[in-house]
Description:
Layout: H1 2-17, H2 24-33, H3 40-52, E1 56-58, E2 64-66, H4 68-81
Antiparallel strand pairs: 1-2
Amino acid sequence: MQKKINKKISILNVLREQNQPVSSAKITQLLSLSGLEFSESTVRLHLKELDDAGLTTPHGKKGRTITEAGLAELQSSKIITRPG
């Protein structure tokens, strides 16, 4: 379960760093550059779950953006995982 949450947090981080909608192929590429290897189908699956949770917004073929709720989720995940 924690692995799945970490993957979603990684995807949200990629979306937060972009100023425009990002496709699943681009997310996969950016994650790979960070040393995280996810298949594009895995990214699409997680994006669908993030959409359903209201953490991302789909923009058709252009890709997705992070929502305010997604930004709040990232912030709370940093508080939970911060050491000390």
